[in-house]
Every structure is written in C-alpha cells, then in structure tokens.
Amino acid sequence: MNGDLVIFICIGICIAILVWILFGKQIFNFIINGVAGFIIIYCINGLLPAYAIGINLLTMGVASLLGIPGIITLYIISMMI
Description:
Layout: H1 3-47, H2 57-66, H3 68-80
Helix pairs in contact: 1-2, 2-3
C-alpha cells in the first residue's frame, strides 16, 4: 500500500470520528426519522394505493428533515397532481 494512501485513510477516519463526535446526535435522529418516515410512507401506500408516493431519496430526505408534516405535504402534493 502506498504511504500517501495510508495517510489519506487516517485523515478520513479522523474526520469521520470528529464529525460523529460533533454531530452524532443529529445524524442519529436524522437516520431514525428516515426509518420512521419509510415505515409510515409504506403503510400509507398500502392503505391509499390511489395516492401512493414512491419511496426514493427525495421522499426519504423530506421525511427525515420535516417528519410527519413533510409526509403529509408529500401526500397533499400527490393528491393535487
């Protein structure tokens, strides 16, 4: 392995640890909100197949950032289109 590569890997690991220390709680909450949003969207898609929205990065991002109000907004937009 090249010496420069080892240095870049060590720097990357240090940056990842620093980001986790500084923003760990926010990252964890973002992931939990994303999983909860996925489950909610999946269940609502089963109950309202006529207004089903796709599960993709955009909808997961909205669900993670905005939570339930974001999911409701996605369904309102889906009903209007």
